[in-house]
Amino acid sequence: MSVMRAFAKRTLAGLLLSSLWAMPARAAEPACDAPAEALEAAPMAGVFAALAHTDLRILVVGSASTQGGGTSGPAATWPLRLQAVLAEKVRPVAVQLEVFGARGTTAADHARILAEQGPRVRPHLIIWQLGTVEAARGLPVEEMAEAVQGAVERLRAIRGERTDVVLMDPQFSRFLRGNADVESYRDWLRVAAAASGAQLFSRWAIMRHWVETDRIDLERAPRARRVAVADELHDCLAHALAEFILDGAQRGRRHRR
Q1: Other CB atoms closer than 10 Å to residue 66's CB: what's the count?
Q2: pTM, whole model, 2 decimals?
């Protein structure tokens, strides 16, 4: 790379990062307003470093909501909406996102996927949606936590701080709350995140806020509007998650000073 090209690359990265850091702390769409504390992230060194270059690689693993979750199609799911939202916010950095998982998959299944795909993708960010299947089946919470900690430890041994990990807890559901001890799984996810150096994005808390403020309530949506409401829910989750990620990147910049 010539000296001029290297200089131009550094200048472009600097301008991009400066524009990101100048963004207001709350950048989500007003219609998708979420509690401020749910959108505050710890420093994300991997994302910060990626935004200083030309691409941001994201690996998503999870169960049903990553694949469709009642939406109108794959493009409406929160992972692909997240890719689109981030691509708009961090351009000219390219956002590459790959999704793995399926309905009914558990943390142990996801850990195997991460072991197989992590070395190939070399992600700057992993978003791991889990806990719903475990809670619905009443699987041992300790096994879920062990799967998380083991997977993150193996990843850290290979990637160090070049990969940030965000755990996403279950979506808020009155039915799940009434038929499973979901709080135990949420508690253990918090413990697993803290113990492994990962972060927790509380989808449960954000969705509960939308339900309690009569913003989005998928369970009580009329049948004729259920798909449209699911699309709206996934879009709002994508905006909230994008804000969480960019907050972490901004804090990652400060952390490295």
Answers
A1: 23
A2: 0.87
33-255 — its CATH code?
A: 3.40.50.1110
d(CA 70, CA 192): 29
Kindly give the confidence (pLDDT) of every residue in the chain, 257 residues in length, as a single tens digit, with 9 standing for 90 and above: 443 344 344 444 444 454 454 444 444 444 688 999 999 999 999 999 999 988 999 999 999 889 887 899 999 999 999 999 999 999 999 999 999 989 999 999 999 999 999 999 999 999 999 999 999 999 999 999 999 999 999 888 888 778 999 999 999 999 999 999 999 999 999 999 999 999 999 999 999 999 999 999 999 999 999 999 999 999 999 999 999 999 999 987 755 54
Tokens 């089946």 correspond to 137
Peptide bond into 35 cis (omega under 30): no
